[in-house]
DNA sequence: AAAACGGGGGC
DNA sequence: GCCCCAGTTTT
């Protein structure tokens, strides 16, 4: 890692060293698996996605499924009924309102119940190649710890980061920052000893030794 | 702005 | 048992 602590340099370092990808590119699979990922660990998300798509591989088949039937399939992977209902409802809306296709604007995507700004931006970036920044708890926390922003909400963070990070890095840095947050810059007990960019970090100067986990 | 929601897993 | 998790919705 160079001496450069600029947001773009840190972003590139994260992109180089931390990968995080659910593996899907088809719009509807990205949308569905991202809904599955909401407030849920990746291991559970990946398992549930595989089970779901192995039985219901298309928008049409999901739309035709009974929510209970779909729930029975994914319930062992940390999922719950509301999410199964959201997914079936989402597939039906895609079919009825969007001609069976996933829309490619933030307004249309967030009009679907269960799809917020973060999920919509993931789809826009991964499936449609648009420059979008999906701010989740990891991105929000890490951006504030590093001192790049001083924000209270993910919405503020998204707006502030767009002025700090080069647009072509928005997509790639997203998953990398999440993985960095899972492995190193964790919500509690961050592994600052193992962190190669601690000298660039505001939080590292404030955190007490006993709060750092080996 | 804060609480509700939701269930498996780590501790 | 309690707290957390690639959030979203409701109060």
Q: Helix coverage percent of residues?
A: 55-70%
Q: Roughly what is the average pLDDT, rounded to an integer?
A: 91
Q: Largest sheet at a glance?
A: none
User: What fraction of residues sit in β-strands?
Assistant: under 5%
The assigned structural class equals: mainly alpha
CATH superfamily of the largest domain: Hypothetical protein, domain 2
Q: Using DSSP, what is the number of strands?
A: 0
Radius of gyration: 18 Å
State the end-to-end distance.
21 Å
Number of helices: 12
CATH fold name of the largest domain, please? Endonuclease III, domain 1
Q: Low-confidence spans: pLDDT under 50, at least 5 residues?
A: none
Indicate the overall shape.
Answer: globular
Please trace the helix and strand order, writing H or E for each element: HHHHHHHHHHHH
CATH class of the largest domain: Mainly Alpha
CATH architecture of the largest domain: Orthogonal Bundle
The number of domains is 2
Structure explained in plain terms:
- The chain is mostly helical.
- It has two domains: 90 residues, Endonuclease Iii, domain 2; 100 residues, Endonuclease III, domain 1, CATH 1.10.340.
- The chain has twelve helices and no strands.
- Helix 1 packs across helix 11, helix 2 crosses helix 3 and helix 2 runs antiparallel to helix 8.
- The chain binds a DNA duplex (11 and 11 nucleotides) through helix 2, helix 3, helix 6, helix 8 and helix 9.
